[in-house]
Amino acid sequence: MLDDLRTSFENLAAATQSRLRGGESFELNLHAEDSEFVRLNRGAVRQAGSVVQRTLSLDLAEGRRHAAGTLTLSGDPAADLERVAALVTELRAQRAELPEDPWLLAPDRPESSERVVASVLPDRDEVLDRLGDAGKARDLVGLYASGPVVHAFASSRGQRNWFVCPSFNLDWSFHLEADRAVKASYAGTRWDGTAFADRLERAAGELELLARPTRDLPPGRYAIHLAPDAVAELMGLLSWGGFGLRALRTRTSPLLRMADGNETFHESVTLVEDTAGGMAPDFQEQGFRRPACVPLIESGRYRASLVSPRSAVEFAAETNGATSQEMPLSLDLAAGDVAANDALARLGTGIHVSNLHYLNYSDRIRCRATGMTRFACFAVEGGRLVAPIGVLRFDDTLFRMLGSNLIGLTRERETILDPGTYGGRSVGSMRVPGALVDDVAFTL
User: Fold this and answer.
1) How many Å apart are CA 133 and CA 131, to the nearest integer?
2) What is the count of structural domains for the chain?
């Protein structure tokens, strides 16, 4: 499949090149996937199938005028060549009506690349057998997706980039009743049956605890243990404008005070955009290469921004291959020195937070965040989970939660993939530890 797809992409690039006129140039992007999907409900398979999808995007430029369009490839070489030829004609007509783009930038030195991520994907039947056993006498609900995702780039300057990442993502919940559930996931590029079994066992144990009477805690300040999923949700909020140059220069970044030198995180907090260790391509849509690693926060201090080509022109900076959204795709939060098995004992008394949702900024410039506890969150006494808690809303600054009030991060980390499939499987991922945080404000 991959060899045929690559040949087809090369043929489409050559056909586009042959139709250029005068000073025209083009950039061609391919997003493709061959995915298996399985949906489960009440511990049984309710839907199983596969998706084969190839989406081609073309940007046709002449000077600083350009127009872009997208089409879905049929897999019929002759038909796809005709459709791409028609798209070139259509974009040429559109471009004539458009103004010049002052922020347009293309690589001045073509840099081709090829990367195929090594992987060990599970057999689907093995996964379903394990889930079937775990779902006996339980209401297991989930989605399993697996298979290769392909990104490719070609330009009229002769640049060619090819990226393949086979991965799996299992996102499931054990549902107890009403709004009581334990959410869990297991994802990556290398399947480990033992790690999966451990994750299932941990979720099943939390489900038993969830059946205990709920304890309603009053608003106040609590020491908390954030599971890796909850840490990932905080990192997702922080990624919303936190690391991009455009947000920094327009003074809208939640990390503005840190970049100005007025705030810091705890010295144990080091965040990098880890392209080499992630599942996203090492090039972006205009063909700029993405470095293997971009240090964003180092030992609690702001180090660098993600810079898209457009921001590079607008703010007279050098691009580091960021996407137009300037959000990390392979975020890595360094491990700490707290053993995960000792985290609750270290906490003593407080709250274990498995998941958060409805996150937003209550004061963006001060990096003040708010959100709700979700799913299996428990009161902790004597270093043990003792009872599920009612829903609470926290409202605190991340400069406190990841700074002065951070007790420590766990040594063990989890890889968490974005489970999004809207338009195609997401390639975004995070690698994060758990966290112990003191004196977090819960307001409702």
Assistant:
1) 5
2) 2
Amino acid at residue number 363: D
Do 14 and 38 share a structural domain?
yes
With contact defined as beta carbons under 8 Å apart, do 287 and 26 qualify?
A: no
Taking the C-alpha atoms of residue 203 and residue 166, their distance in angstroms, rounded to an integer, is 26
Three-class SS state of 261: coil
pTM of the shown model: 0.95
Name residue 234's amino acid.
L
Q: Is the pLDDT of residue 1 over 70?
A: no
Structure tokens at 347: 């906490």
| Amino acid occupying residue 429 | S
Structure confidence by residue, pLDDT tens digits, 78-97: 999 999 999 999 999 999 99
Which one-letter amino acid corresponds to residue 344? L
Q: One-letter amino acid identity for 206?
A: E
Query: Taking residues 343-362, what's their average pLDDT?
Result: 96
C-alpha separations of 29 from 32, 119, 363 in Å: 10, 24, 38
The residue segments making up the domain with residue 276 are 212-442
332: tokens are: 């890595």
Distance CA 128, CA 47 (A): 12
